[in-house]
Amino acid sequence: MNSIPKQNSGHILSLFSVALRDDIRAYLPGLLPKFVALFGEAERGGGYELVRPALACLEALGTALEDHLALLLPALVRLIHPSMILTPVMLQYVHD
Question: Would 93 be classed as within a structural domain?
Fold first, then answer.
């Protein structure tokens, strides 16, 4: 059996979320960890081609995400502001 290409699966999920509206909430506990994993993998590997379709899908989920934003926000923030580990640390010497 052929699987759906990853780029199309986001579009299909967007269509489902629009069609199901609030009924999609029952499926969010299974879906959201997949989004978090996708964003984490994009951050680590630098492959951002699936991020835009995933964000469009989250936008289509709309208010169904209200109760779950705390799970998504850390992954989204890391996409915007990568880990501080990669940022050079400025050292400041204090003279007595």
Answer: no
